[in-house]
Amino acid sequence: MCGIIAVLRRPSDRALPDLPGLAAELVTARGHLTAALTAVEAGDGALGAAHLRDAAEHAAAVDAALRGVPGATALLADRRGAVRVRDDAEALGPLLARLEAALDAGAVDADDVEPVNEALVAAKDAAWAVARDRLRTADAIHGLLAGLDPASHHPAIAGFHSVQVALSAIDRLEVRGRDSAGLHLHVRGHGLDLADPAVRRRIDDRSADPLLRNRSVRAVGDALAFVYKAAAEIGELGDNVAALRAAITDDDLLHLALAGAHPEVVVLGHTRWASVGIISEANAHPLNHEETGGPTGPYVAAALNGDVDNHLELVTRHGLGIAPEITTDAKVIPTLVSRALGEGTDLVEAFRSTVASFEGSVAIAAWP
Hints:
Number of helices: 13
Number of domains: 2
Shape: elongated
Distance between the termini: 25 Å
CATH topology of the largest domain: Glutamine Phosphoribosylpyrophosphate, subunit 1, domain 1
Low-confidence stretches: none
Mean pLDDT: 94
CATH class of the largest domain: Alpha Beta
Number of strands: 8
Strand order of the largest sheet: 1-5-2-4-3
CATH superfamily of the largest domain: Aminohydrolase, N-terminal nucleophile (Ntn) domain
């Protein structure tokens, strides 16, 4: 089994949230939790449930405000404000634990247990989302920025937010397979001068690997494609994501690309449980369309969940030039789509006709 993640993003026009205001919301939530605890310990379940619902509402409002790029940008650009939000969010935990203990100890009548418990769960979920999702996402993005100043590189935050979403998803998807994993970042609007000899030399140095292994780069018209992969026959959950995160954090060329004025990033990611082909970076998805032995068609990258049972037949039928080190069936996907595009077929039909030629059970994500 495998897992696929793709992240596409429209520019957000939502204003950055006001962190002092959100901290005040959390203080209000804490007040309601304190009142709820007093009520529950006094045996007044109805009043306790009412205060818990109010606490949940205020914490949920903070969670909603901190979602997405605007929330992460606010937390990263105002670190003092972020510390205050974090402190106020963490202060909810002990009160929620005391409320849960009081409920377990039978502090309220049986008729009030269900509404109190329902309200308590809502409050716990909202508090968890703020502390473990919003704040942790901002922390992870801060690590990926690797020295870029969040206050002056807001567009980079959006790009790395997409990367973090993909890495977090792979972390969760690794229960479906973890012998290898990969990310493909398509970056437009990077602002780099691709005609500059120094820039071109750095790109060319990383374009020389025909197997598209870790840290490979491709120039795709005015865009750049960055590839990160990890593969290990024996490993533990989280190893691959840690390797991918380290490679991305250490990639100064990617950071230069995302430091431009208007970078746009599309992320395609995959975690693999090999069923066809050995465990290797060359076989890790996503793969691209490139063939051996000559010019190739338009750029395409793809990832596969499932098996293309007739992939060897398709390689022979179409005379695909696939490097012998690449033995995964997924390689036929971008190659055949690219060939169809090169023949003038429109994108939708190129993808449809390619998938229609497959035998087996597949889920596919592709990027032209």
